[in-house]
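Our consortium's second objective concerns turning raw sequence data into structural hypotheses that experimental partners can test. To show how far this objective has progressed, the report includes one record in full. It was chosen at random from the queue rather than selected for favorable results. The single chain below, 84 residues long, was entered without modification.
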Amino acid sequence: MAVVMVLQRLEGLSDREAVERFAFDVRWKYAAGGLDFDHPGFVHTVLVDMRARLAASARPDRIFEPTVEVAAQRFLPALLRCFE
């Protein structure tokens, strides 16, 4: 679920669009742990519920923090070198 939420944010998709993408895009299923193409998926309200649970927690951005950290480590240095 966390992978879908990260991909959803990166792609700027609505909950319904993210669920549809997960259902029909093998790349998303691979990113989510190599699920079979015929994996049944889930309904969009699962994302709504998960987001609400994260928002009510002590660290609501915890699933996005590792993504930002990896991006900063790998892509920011390369980007900064372009301006040297």
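The partners drew two points from this record. The radius of gyration is 15 Å. The CA atoms of residues 23 and 38 lie 8 Å apart. Both points have been shared with the crystallography group to help prioritize constructs.
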